[in-house]
Amino acid sequence: MNREIISLKNLSKSYNIAGKPFYALKEINLSFGEGEFTGIVGPSGSGKTTLLNIIGSLDSPSGGEAIVLEKNISSLNHSESARLRNYNIGFIFQVFNLLPVYTVYENVEFALLLQNFSQDERKKLVLQALKWVGLENHKDKKPDKLSGGESQRVAIARAIVKKPKILLADEPTANLDAENAHSILKTMKKINKELGTTFIFSTHDEKVMKYLNRTIILKDGNIEKETKK
Ligand code: ADP
Ligand code: MG
Fold this sequence. Notes:
By secondary structure, this protein is α/β, with parallel strands linked by helices.
């Protein structure tokens, strides 16, 4: 494995349901190396979103530990976890979450506004990200003029514009038809190769399995099986 950048040890997540603990994740042990392209596969309710949210520091574990880029997720305060997300982790969701009143260009630029980039630097980064996803000719469009596949490309551009080390994608092809799902996977794979970004994404979409280098199958909060190519 390349340099380890994520390590999960006996990681669990429980919710209190009617006074009893319900385990969404049960003692998960996993590590991820730099530059991996890994799928978390499992039926609805198996714990995929919970796992990604903990890795992305949007949620905290109930037990065990999650070390992401040398930071222990449980011990980060609000601003430390925001910093980890702002600089090092990009997110892509099943719903595209684009801002409807802004153009494609502005939606991607939005991700850079929290940092101290000059306008010229922002422009360079945004145009480069739109080029990676093949949308440089659509930069002045509003989201309602885009197809589902194009919208997801904008979301990818927005997630990678800061060149995060880790990109987390939660069922990114769930709302796409077959053709767009393949093309999104090819785009993600290209970014993975060219930028070395570590991709971890959840899916239960059979169509995308062939793109994975590593597949982790989750069932009821447990790792049922793991395969590597
Ligand atoms: P997946 O993404 O694989 O569909 P999730 O990680 O969303 O699965 O959920 C795993 C399990 O945890 C499910 O049974 C879900 O109902 C439960 N769960 C998730 N979030 C909460 C919550 N906030 N409160 C109670 N149960 C939850
Ligand atoms: Mg989910």
